[in-house]
Amino acid sequence: MMLIKFARPLLTIVSLAWIALLAPTATGWANRSQKFPEPPNDLTRIYYLSADNRLLPLPFEPGVTLLDVFLPAKRNEIARVVLEGSTARTVLAYNNPRFYVFVADKMDPPPHQLVRLTSKRSARELAISVIKGRKGYAPFESDNVRLEHRILERLQVETSKGRYIFVNYMEIRPLATLPPGEYAVIGDSLSDMATFRVQ
Asked: Are the CB atoms for 196 and 120 separated by under 8 Å?
């Protein structure tokens, strides 16, 4: 079993976003005869498969909003999340990307969502909603891209000397091709939005 030194708290790579997922027994573990990219060492990043079959990390950008999504909402509310700059630095020249992430074992559903961002003159935006009395947030269905999830490998990770947890190495991919535009892979923390652009 592969051992990976855990760099940041697991909470930064797992989140409580709301998405639908088939159970692992339905999606299945990857067939060992199938080839898939080896797990990278940094479990806190979100990776994409490049045109030359290399795993590259997506850059994180902070989303700015007036809401604190980690506290129970005081009322039902809709808010904007704003990212500086009209375009993402990472450009994908193809519209059927594959992403690779790490998710805490038995986390169902997994946290990652893929959303389309609205481009403004000097920024990108995402509308979110919160529900009174609840923590967390949800993007609107019109901005949410449905994903297919596949567990590739279950990894034993050392969190500190002699202490281990299990983490699932997963592939996520859109169910349909992505039209040109600005996108982000998000989780519970809007301060770490993994952004990219499809040409």
From this structure: no
